[in-house]
C-alpha cells in the first residue's frame, strides 16, 4: 500500500491549501506512451520506466487514461472489470509499482474512472442479458421495450455520440441505452447497487494509493425522468451547448456529493476531476461546489481558437465562474479526443505560444503526452489501422481521434522511435525522428526544452499558478498582456510582429525575440518586471 507515501507529498504549492490548485497534470495515454514488452502497445511497466522523464519535465501529477480489463471497443473506456488491469497493460502489481514509484519521485497519480457506462462484457451486463426482461438485474442498466407495433423502433430518439441510435435491441426484443458505442451500455444511476458499487471502486483505488480520479462523462450519469425524446435531429450539434435529457442533469450533483465524502475519508488531498461538457463555465462551476469535485476540464478554453479577444473572454469567464465556488480554473489545449493543438491552431509557433500563455494563467494546467514535443496530429492514417469506434459510424464524431493517439517518439531514427521494440499499434510518421525526446533534449530551441524551462520558471514563481485573477494590461489589437505580481505575460496571436514596450526583463519566450520592444508574430513572452 502506498498511501503513506502520498501523505508525505507536499499538500500546498500556492497560497491556498491543496496541491491540485495550481498543479500541472500530465496525461498519459497508456496505449501510446511506452511499450515494455515489444507487443506494439504501451503498458504500465513502460509508464513506470519513464516516470523519471516526467519528473524531469517538471509536472506535478500524472493522469492515466484507462488501463482496466476491457475488450477495447473504445480504447479502454469500455470497462469489463473496474478492479482488474487488462493483461495488455500488465497486472495490479504493475499498477501498484507505478503509484509507488511516482510517489517516491514526488509525482501524484490520477486514474480514469468510467462510471457512465461499462463494457457489454462486464459481468453485470452479461447477467442482465441472461436473466431476460423483467429481471431486477436489468434495472442496473436502461432496458426498455421498443416503440412501434412489434417494438421494432428504439424507445426514444436519442442518438449515440459515436453515431446511430443510442439504443441497441437484444435477442429477446428489449432495447438498452448506450450513449456511446453499443459495446458500452449505460448504467442506471438511480439504482442503489450502481451507487454502492462505484463508492466501493473508489475505495479500491484510494486504498491502492491513487491521488484522485478523472471522471469520464461526469455530466452524463443521470438521465431525465422518463427518458423523454429530444425532438430533433442533428443532436451532436447540441452537445455542450445546452442541458440535454441525458447530459448535465442537475441530479448528477448528488452523486458527487457522496463521492466527495469518500475522498475526504482519505488523508493526503485526494481529488475528483470532472470531464463535464456543459453549456457554460457557470454550469461547469456547479460540479466544483465545496462539497463536490475539485477540478473540471475547461473545455470552453480548449475550444477557443488562437484569437486574442476570444481567449481573453474565455479566460475572464472561466476565472469569474470558478471564483464563485472557490475552485481553481483549469486550462487544457489537447487530449486524446481532440485534434492536437499544433494542428488545430495552424503550426508549431502558435502551439508553443499557446503553451506559454496557458502555463502563465492562475490555476491548474493539463499537458497531453507529446504536446511537450510539439507533435502534430497525424492526419493520413490509413483506414485499415484505425480503431476509434466513431470512425466506423456514419454521422458520428469526426472520426479523427486516432490521429492524436499515435505512440510518442522517444529516441532513434527508425520507427517506433524507442516507443518499444515491436512496432507501434498506430504507425508513426517518418518526420517524427526529429521530434523524439532524444532529438530535442539539450537543444534550447526545442519545444521539449521550452516546456521544461516553462515548468521550471512556474515552479520558481509560484504566483503564476496561484490566485484566481489576472490583471489585464493595455495591449494592441490581437495581443494579450497581463500581470501577475512581478510577472508579466504578453502573447501576440497575430501573424505580424507588434510593437510593444518591454515590460521588464525576459524570463522565457516561445519564439526568438530580435528586439525587446517588438513581439514577433504568434509568440508569447514571459517577463519579470
Ligand atoms: C470521454 C473519453 O475521453 C473518450 O475517449 C471516450 O470515448 C468517451 N468519454 C466515452 O467513454
What does it look like?
The protein contains 14 helices and 20 strands. Helix 6 (about 190-205) runs parallel beside helix 7 and helix 12 runs parallel beside helix 14 (about 445-460). It starts with a helix and ends with a strand. It is globular and about 75 Å long. The strands form five sheets. It has an eight-stranded parallel β-sheet with strand order 11-10-9-5-2-1-13-12. The protein has a five-stranded antiparallel β-sheet with strand order 14-15-16-20-18. Strand 15 (about 480-485) and strand 16 form a beta hairpin. Helices cover about 25% and strands about 15% of the residues. With about 525 residues, it is α/β, with parallel strands linked by helices. It has three domains: about 5-115 and about 190-460, Glycosidases (TIM Barrel, Alpha-Beta Barrel), CATH 3.20.20.80; about 125-175, Oligo-1,6-glucosidase, domain 2, CATH 3.90.400; about 470-529, Golgi alpha-mannosidase II (Immunoglobulin-like, Sandwich). The chain has helices at about 5-10, 45-50, 50-55, 90-105, 125-130, 190-205, 250-265, 280-285, 300, 310-325, 340-345, 350-360, 435-440, 445-460; strands at about 25-30, 60-65, 70, 80-85, 110-115, 145, 165-170, 175, 210-215, 270-275, 295, 330, 365-370, 470, 480-485, 485-490, 500, 505-510, 520, 525-529. Residues about 1-5 have low confidence and may be disordered. The structure holds 1-deoxynojirimycin. 1-deoxynojirimycin binds near residues 77, 216 and 337.
Amino acid at each position: 500500500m502506498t498511501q503513506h507515501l502520498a501523505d508525505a507529498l507536499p499538500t500546498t504549492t500556492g497560497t491556498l491549501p491543496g496541491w491540485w490548485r495550481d498543479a500541472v497534470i500530465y496525461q498519459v495515454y497508456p496505449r501510446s506512451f511506452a511499450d515494455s514488452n515489444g507487443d506494439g502497445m504501451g503498458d504500465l511497466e513502460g509508464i513506470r520506466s519513464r516516470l523519471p522523464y516526467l519528473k524531469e519535465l517538471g509536472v506535478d501529477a500524472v493522469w492515466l487514461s484507462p488501463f482496466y480489463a476491457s475488450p477495447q471497443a473504445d480504447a479502454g473506456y469500455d470497462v469489463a472489470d473496474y478492479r482488474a488491469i487488462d493483461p495488455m497493460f500488465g497486472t495490479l502489481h504493475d499498477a501498484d509499482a507505478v503509484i509507488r514509484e511516482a510517489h517516491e519521485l514526488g509525482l501524484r497519480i490520477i486514474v480514469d474512472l468510467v462510471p457512465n457506462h461499462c463494457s457489454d462484457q462486464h459481468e453485470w451486463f452479461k447477467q442482465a442479458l441472461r436473466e431476460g426482461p423483467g429481471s431486477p438485474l436489468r434495472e442496473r442498466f436502461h432496458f426498455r421495450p421498443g416503440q412501434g407495433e412489434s417494438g421494432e423502433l428504439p424507445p426514444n430518439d436519442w442518438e449515440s455520440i459515436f453515431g446511430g441510435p443510442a439504443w441497441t435491441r437484444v435477442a429477446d426484443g428489449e432495447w438498452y441505452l448506450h450513449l456511446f458505442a453499443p459495446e458500452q451500455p449505460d448504467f442506471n444511476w438511480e439504482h442503489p447497487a450502481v451507487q454502492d458499487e462505484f463508492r466501493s471502486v473508489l475505495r479500491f483505488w484510494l486504498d491502492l494509493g491513487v491521488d484522485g480520479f478523472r471522471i469520464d462523462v461526469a455530466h452524463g450519469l443521470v438521465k431525465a425522468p422518463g427518458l423523454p425524446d429530444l425532438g430533433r435531429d442533428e443532436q451532436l450539434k447540441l452537445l455542450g451547448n445546452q442541458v440535454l435529457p441525458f447530459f448535465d442533469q442537475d441530479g448528477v450533483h448528488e452523486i458527487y456529493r457522496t463521492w466527495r465524502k469518500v475522498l475526504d475519508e482519505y488523508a493526503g488531498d485526494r481529488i475528483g476531476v470532472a470531464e463535464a461538457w456543459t453549456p457554460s463555465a457557470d454550469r461547469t462551476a456547479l460540479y466544483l461546489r465545496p462539497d463536490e469535485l475539485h477540478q473540471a476540464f475547461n473545455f470552453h478554453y480548449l475550444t477557443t481558437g488562437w484569437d486574442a479577444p476570444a481567449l481573453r473572454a474565455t479566460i475572464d469567464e472561466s476565472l469569474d465562474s470558478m471564483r464563485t465556488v472557490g475552485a481553481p480554473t483549469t486550462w487544457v489545449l489537447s487530449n486524446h479526443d481532440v485534434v492536437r493543438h499544433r494542428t488545430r491552431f495552424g503550426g508549431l509557433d502558435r502551439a508553443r505560444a499557446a503553451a506559454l500563455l496557458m502555463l502563465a494563467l492562475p490555476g491548474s494546467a493539463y499537458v497531453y503526452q507529446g504536446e511537450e514535443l510539439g507533435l502534430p496530429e497525424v492526419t493520413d492514417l490509413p483506414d485499415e489501422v484505425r480503431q476509434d469506434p466513431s470512425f466506423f459510424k456514419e454521422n458520428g464524431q469526426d472520426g479523427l481521434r486516432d490521429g492524436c493517439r499515435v505512440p510518442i517518439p522517444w529516441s532513434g531514427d527508425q520507427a517506433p522511435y524507442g516507443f518499444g521494440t515491436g512496432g507501434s499499434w498506430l504507425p508513426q510518421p517518418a518526420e517524427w525522428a526529429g521530434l523524439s525526446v532524444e532529438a530535442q533534449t539539450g537543444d534550447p530551441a526545442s519545444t521539449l526544452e521550452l516546456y521544461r524551462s516553462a515548468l521550471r520558471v512556474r515552479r520558481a514563481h509560484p504566483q503564476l499558478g496561484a490566485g484566481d485573477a489576472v490583471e489585464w494590461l493595455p495591449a494592441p489589437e490581437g495581443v494579450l498582456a497581463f500581470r501577475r505580481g512581478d510577472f508579466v505575460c504578453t502573447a501576440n496571436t497575430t501573424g505580424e510582429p507588434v510593437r510593444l514596450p518591454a515590460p521588464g526583463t525576459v524570463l522565457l519566450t516561445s519564439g526568438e525575440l530580435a528586439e525587446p520592444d517588438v513581439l514577433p508574430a504568434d509568440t508569447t513572452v514571459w517577463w519579470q518586471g
